[in-house]
Each structure stands twice: as C-alpha cells, then as structure tokens.
C-alpha cells in the first residue's frame, strides 16, 4: 500500500432531499426531488462500500460526516454508518442532522456514531423537549453533541456565471470551505475538494444553463493504485479554482436571515436567478481578497 493522505474532514450525502426547505442551502437540498432520481441513484450501499473500501486504503480523515439533505430520511442510514465504522477511514464518525427525526431513531444509531451535530435554526426551532432528549441519549451512549446555531445563511451558489476570472480566483483562494474547514466530499466514485462541487454542475445542466454537467471535471476519480494517496494530497492543495467556483461566492456572499422557501420558489428554482452582483458582500470581498493578494493571508 502506498502513501496515505491525512485530511481533516470528509463528507458523504446519503440523501440530497430534506424535510426542511432552507433558502440558500449550499447543497441545494430544497431543489432535489423525484425529478433527480438518476442523480440520486448514485447513493447505494453497494457503491458506498466499494468506494469507501478503496478510499480508506489511501486517505484517512479526522472526521467523516454523514449528512444530506437530511440523512435520517434514508431508511438504511444504519447500514451506511456500519460500513463506515468497519472501513476505519475516520477517527470520528459524525452525523449532521436538523434533529427533527432524531427522537424516532433506535439506540443502534447512537451506538454507531461518535458525534452528532444538530443544525439549529431560530426561525424554525427544534422544540426544547427534543433538544433535551437528544442531549440525554447522547450522554447515555457517550456521543459528543454539537448544537450549531444558524440564524443566518450565506448566499453562496448562483445560477449566473461569474465571468471575472480574477474575482473567481480570489473567491476560491479565500474560501473557508476549501482552505479553513477543508471539508472534502465523496460522491459517485469521485472525491471533491469542495463539498458544494458535486451538485453545482449537475443542477446547472439540469436547468439548461450549461451544455454539460461538469461536476466530475471538478473531482478526482477514485483509483485503487499505490500513488492515489499522493494524487489526492496534490489535488486537495491545488490553488486553481474549480469550474464550480464560477457559480459560487465562497465565503464572501451576503448574510441573510434563515427562512423557508415557498413551494412556488422551489418550483421556480429561484437559486438559479442569483448573480454575483446581487449576492456578494462587497465590503467583505474587498477586505478578504486584498489580504490574499497582498499578503497571501486566507
């Protein structure tokens, strides 16, 4: 076995749809549904076992996040967690959920994870009783519990291309997802250095905005070869923007109050109407990009 690349975080979406409809969800979860059956078919226990088996030989992560969408909507969530544990790819297995379905889960789920992160939205809060029960069950099973308060979302994915290559480069090289959080994704036999990248090209192509789905061009295909660990490390540290970056604001989008989208907004795919000019926080962008260009500070 060759060189093993060590990373901070990897994530895998066991669902793309969600039981909430959050505006500016950076996985575009409100816009996934039955029409995306072919894309959703990439999520399977057989393929996950195969992919995680290869990846675990060449990459190790401090945390492996199982999320969505809402991961607890998947009827076989426990099987994914068991395969993940058996692979030994991660020091810590983390379930990321909005918590609304957590009370319905068997003890086996709590035994299968090391940490649960509940995304808490003040505009649509999880009831205190549910929070208390989650704390109690996590204590019972020695599971770390993180409550991640999200009163605001950052505008991130846009449907109108950013044609300013210099701005795209600056946005990418100051992106906290890519450089601070360093949360990478596994999707359909590819690893991605950005957790947003697997969805952007697909959705743009589905709407006819771009002629082809360029998602896989942004990723690194899994290979069961001795040099894959070194290839992955080189890929994760590239300073060249992905194609998806032309449709993303990284960490310089405006912060907006969390809210739920209406059925009409979802049907109209409102995310695709956003452009850089109406979504960027100009002051933040000037500050962050100046620090990068002058001092190479991210």
Description:
The protein is α/β, with parallel strands linked by helices and 298 residues long. It has 13 helices and ten strands. An eight-stranded mixed beta sheet has the order 5-4-3-2-1-7-8-9. β7 and β8 form a beta hairpin. The longest helix is centred in the N-terminal third of the chain and has 14 residues, at 45-58. The model has no long low-confidence stretch (mean pLDDT 96).
Topology:
Layout: E1 5-13, H1 37-40, H2 45-58, E2 59-67, H3 77-87, E3 90-97, H4 107-111, E4 115-120, H5 128-140, E5 144-149, E6 152-154, H6 165-173, H7 176-179, E7 183-187, E8 190-192, H8 197-206, H9 215-218, E9 220-221, H10 228-236, E10 255-257, H11 263-267, H12 276-279, H13 282-295
Helix pairs in contact: 2-3, 6-13
Class from secondary-structure proportions: alpha/beta
The percent range for strand residues is: 15-25%
Provide a count of the helices.
Answer: 13
Oligomer: single chain
- Silhouette: globular
Q: How many beta-strand runs?
A: 10
Biggest sheet, in brief? 8 strands, mixed
Q: Which strands sit side by side, in order, in the main sheet?
A: 5-4-3-2-1-7-8-9
Radius of gyration from the alpha-carbon trace, in angstroms: 19 Å
Distance between the termini: 34 Å
Helix content: 25-40%
Query: Element order, helices and strands?
Result: EHHEHEHEHEEHHEEHHEHEHHH
Mean pLDDT: 96
- Which blocks of ≥5 consecutive residues have pLDDT under 50? none
């Amino acid at each position: 076995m060759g060189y093993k690349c060590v990373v901070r975080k990897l994530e895998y979406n066991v669902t793309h749809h969600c039981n909430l409809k959050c505006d500016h969800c950076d996985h575009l979860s409100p816009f996934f549904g039955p029409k995306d059956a072919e894309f959703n078919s990439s999520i399977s226990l057989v393929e996950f076992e195969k992919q995680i088996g290869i990846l675990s030989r060449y990459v190790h992560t401090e945390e492996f996040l199982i999320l969505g969408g809402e991961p607890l909507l998947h009827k076989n969530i426990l099987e994914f967690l068991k395969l993940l544990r058996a692979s030994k790819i991660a020091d810590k297995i983390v379930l990321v959920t909005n918590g609304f379905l957590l009370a319905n889960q068997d003890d086996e789920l709590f035994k299968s994870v090391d940490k649960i992160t509940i995304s808490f939205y003040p505009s649509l809060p999880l009831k205190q009783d549910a929070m208390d029960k989650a704390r109690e069950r996590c204590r019972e099973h020695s599971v770390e519990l993180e409550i991640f308060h999200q009163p605001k979302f950052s505008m991130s994915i846009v449907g109108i291309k950013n044609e300013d290559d210099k701005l795209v480069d600056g946005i990418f090289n100051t992106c906290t997802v890519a450089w601070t959080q360093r949360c990478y994704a596994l999707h359909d036999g590819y690893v991605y250095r950005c957790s947003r990248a697997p969805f952007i090209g697909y959705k743009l192509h589905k709407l006819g905005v771009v002629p082809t789905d360029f998602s896989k061009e942004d990723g690194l295909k899994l290979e069961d070869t001795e040099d894959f660990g070194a290839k992955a490390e080189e890929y994760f540290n590239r300073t060249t923007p992905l194609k998806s970056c032309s449709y993303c604001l990284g960490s310089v989008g405006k912060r907006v109050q969390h809210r739920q989208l209406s059925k009409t907004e979802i049907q109209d795919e409102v995310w695709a109407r956003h452009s850089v000019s109406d979504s960027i926080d100009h002051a933040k962008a000037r500050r962050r990009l100046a620090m990068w260009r002058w001092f190479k500070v991210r």
